[in-house]
């Protein structure tokens, strides 16, 4: 494993120390690794969703009439629930 030295403000160092003191992490390195891992996961999930959207079919031009159609459908859907 590689070593990475970083400089952070004292307030952030205190926050990291609190996270370690909470018992969820054994040390600051483990906490930072967890943050990086989570960010990687979120980035991968976002890329997957974007690709699914791109590959989902032809694009839809979103113009005022499109929004009006969506609004009307929502109003009708929710008004039917109240009956």
Rg over CA atoms: 23 Å
Largest sheet: none
Structural class: mainly alpha
Number of β-strand runs: 0
**Mean pLDDT figure:** 94
Uncertain residue ranges: none
Which range does the strand content fall in?
A: under 5%
Helix and strand sequence: HHH
Multimerization status: single chain
The helical percent reads 55-70%
- How many DSSP helices? 3
Report, as a whole number of angstroms, the end-to-end distance: 63 Å
Shape: elongated
SSE layout and pairing:
Elements: H1 10-21, H2 28-54, H3 64-81
What would a concise description of this structure say?
The protein has 83 residues and is mainly alpha-helical. It has three helices and no strands.
Features:
83 residues, 3 helices
Please describe what this structure looks like.
With 83 residues, the chain is an all-alpha fold. It has a domain at 7-56. It has three helices and no strands. It has helices at residues 10-21, 28-54, 64-81. The chain is elongated. The termini are far apart. The model has no long low-confidence stretch (mean pLDDT 94).
